Structure formats: C-alpha cells, structure tokens
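Typical record was shown:
=====
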Amino acid sequence: MHERLSFYVQRSSAIHDLNPLTKVILTLALILIAFTSPWYWTPHLLVLIAIIPLSFLGRVAPEFFKTAIRLILPAAGFLFLMQAFFQPVGESVIFKFYFLDVTQESLMFAFRSSMRVFVMVSAFTFMLLTTHPSELMSDLTRRGLPGQFAYVIISTLQILPQMQAKAQTIISAQRSRGLDTESSFLKRAGSVVPLVGPLVFGSLAEVEERAIAIEARGFTSKKIKTSLHEIADSNSDKIIRWVLTILVIISIALKIWLS
C-alpha cells in the first residue's frame, strides 16, 4: 500500500522514528549548506559523510541507491555535460569538441553544480523514503500550517508515485488487449500514445474524486481537528533541529564573510 501512495518505505530505524518536521529541517539544511558553503568540496563531503551514512542508518540504502542510479545520477550527469560545454568561463582549455571548448574552470564549475543538484535531489529522496506523507501532513497541521497548504505539499509529494502506479495499471490493461510494449524501440514509442489518454483523463477524474472525499471529511471546517495517531516530538528532535539551524546560519555567515 505504501508503494502505491508514496515513496515511503516502512522500516524500523532511528530515522523513521524522528519527527517529520525534523526530517524536513534536515533536508533543507543539507540543501542550504551545499549551496551556501564557501568551500568547493562541501557538497561532495555531504554526500559521503551525511547522505549515504543516513541512508544506511534509515535502512533504506537499497532503495536510495536504486533511485540514485536510475534518476539522480542521469540528471546530475546531464547538468554536468551542459555546464562543462556551454559555461563560458576560464581560459585553460583542456580539449575542444568542434566549436565547443572545455576549460578547467568550466569543468570545476560543472562538477560543483552537478554535485549540488545531486545533494538536493538525494536529500529529498531520503526524506520521501523515510517519511510517511500522512504523518508529515498531520504534524504540519498540528503546528498551525493551514490544511490547504499542507494538502498541496502532500499532493505534490505523492503525485509521481501515484502516476507511476496508474501508468502500470494502464499498461497491464493495454497488454491484455494486445498492445505491443516489448518489441523494437519504434513500436514501443508508438505504444505510448494509447497510454497517454487514459493516464491524463484518469488523473483528472481522480482529482475530482479526491476533492469530493476531502470535503466529505470536513477538510475546510474551521473547528479544531483531533487525530487518533499522535506524532511524537522528543527533546532529541528539538535539539537536532536547533543544531541543524545553527549549522545553516554558520554556513551562510561564512559565505558572506569570505566572499
């Protein structure tokens, strides 16, 4: 059920036991430090000493590395190539490719930019793997965030896995009707057209059904709502959030001071 609704992987770990807000602050802290730190190797070190160890601590390393190989690395690699070939900085030319020059400076700039993107997407991936959307929504609304904003956030986090699940259902249904999805590339590309219509119209119908469902549950009611499942917020969570906030402030201050 969890795989159909979100990327969340249910495991018993110290990361899963953290308050959802703590994991949100952790994600934002990793991203802000990667982008504001004045030192070149900070994003690379964050991957090695923070993100990868946290994935093992949260017992989601297999899922994280699978996502990294299939999604994060290709995106970061594409950005690296674009920045390396088309960033007009530096004069130390390493090699030429037709009219494109790759300089040492553009290569270093591309490497840092791609690693920052890698940190950003990896941090969000780690949060999605260890945080259930309903717990995040409950905790945010309990802290005073309007329900409409919380719903937008949760819907955004859930849209990709829900679309994937719906696409798989449509593909299976079309295969049973004789649709060829396993032959040559051109035939498989042509098979995409019969899948797009049901996916788009099915998603629109699902939006209407969800709107009716949340209205039936008093989503827009102004009365104080209660929850059967209380989200724990320990002193350790509060300390972690304060430490992360201080680290971000230090990183920004050093960036301003050393610039």
